[in-house]
C-alpha cells in the first residue's frame, strides 16, 4: 500500500513537472521504478501505459488554455509514434542485465542535458511566427520517440529543447504541443511493449496509480506553465534525475563502486545541483528586474494599464 501511495505522489509530481517544462514525466517516473528494482522494459511499459491517460488529460488542458500548435502536433506525432514502437520492441528483446545500464545511461544523459540546458540558457526566444518545416519535425519525432521508449522517457527532453531552440513558437505552445503529441507516442510505445512483453510485462496497478496522480496534476500543470519559472524548475529536476541514475549506475554489477566512491560522487553532484539551482534563481530574478525596468520606462506598464497614446492633429 505504501508503494502505491508513493507512486501516486510520484505520478502527481512528475506530471506537474512535465506539464510545466514539457518534459520529465517518463524520465522521473521510470527513474523511481528502476530505483525499486523494476525490470527496465517493464518499468518503461508501465510508465507509457499510464502516460496514455496523463498525456490525454494534459493535452486537453493545454488545448483549453490555447497552448497547442496543431500544425506542429500533426507533423511530429506520427514520426514519434513510429520511433516509439521501434524503441519499445527493441528494449523488449534485450535481457534485463543488458537493458538496465543502457536505460540508466540514457536517463543520466537526459538529466545532464536538462540541467545544463535550463541552468545555462533558460528559455530561448526569437523568430516567433516563422513556420517549422516538416523536414525538421519528422527526424526529430523519430529520434525522440525511439529515445522515449528505450529510456523510459525522452520525448520531452529531446523534443522540447529542439523546438525551443528554433525560437519559432512561443514557449507555452512548445510545452503544450509536445505534451499533446505525446499521447500518440505513449499509445504506440505501449503497443510495442505489449507485442514484445505481453500483458504480463506490465504492472497495471502501478500504471493505474501513476495515471491517477498524473490526471489530477494535468490541469494544474497547464496553469503553472504560465506562472512558474521554467529555468529554476528545469535545474531542480535535472539534478534529481542525475543523482538518482548515478546511484543506480554506481551500484550496478558492471561498476561496483565502493561506498566511499559513491559518497564522494553524491556529494559532488549535490554541490553542483545546489549551485545550478542558485544560478537559475539568480538569473530569473535578474530577468524579472530587467522586465520591470522596461515596464517602468513605458507609461502605464508598471501598473498593468494599457499605455496611453496621445493623438495630435
Structural notes for this entry:
It is a multi-pass membrane protein. Belongs to the 4-toluene sulfonate uptake permease (TSUP) (TC 2.A.102) family. It is found in: Cell membrane; Membrane. Keywords: Cell membrane, Membrane, Transmembrane, Transmembrane helix. This protein has 313 residues and is an all-alpha fold. The protein has one domain. It is built from eleven helices and no strands. Helix 3 runs antiparallel to helix 8. The chain is globular.
Describe the SSE topology.
Elements: H1 2-21, H2 25-35, H3 40-64, H4 70-93, H5 96-121, H6 134-151, H7 155-166, H8 171-197, H9 204-224, H10 230-250, H11 259-297
Helix pairs in contact: 1-2, 1-9, 2-3, 2-10, 3-8, 3-9, 4-6, 4-8, 5-10, 5-11, 6-7, 7-8, 10-11
Identify low-pLDDT runs: 301-313
- DSSP strand content: under 5%
What is Rg? 20 Å
Class computed from helices, strands and strand pairing: mainly alpha
Give the overall shape.
globular
The overall average pLDDT, rounded, is 75
Number of folding domains? Answer: 1
How many helical elements? 11
Would you list the SSEs in sequence order as H and E? HHHHHHHHHHH
Query: What is the percent of helical residues?
Result: over 70%
Number of strands: 0
- How would you characterize the largest beta sheet? none
Distance between the termini: 76 Å
Membrane topology: Multi-pass membrane protein
Protein name: Probable membrane transporter protein
Pfam families: TauE (PF01925)
Keywords: Cell membrane, Membrane, Transmembrane, Transmembrane helix
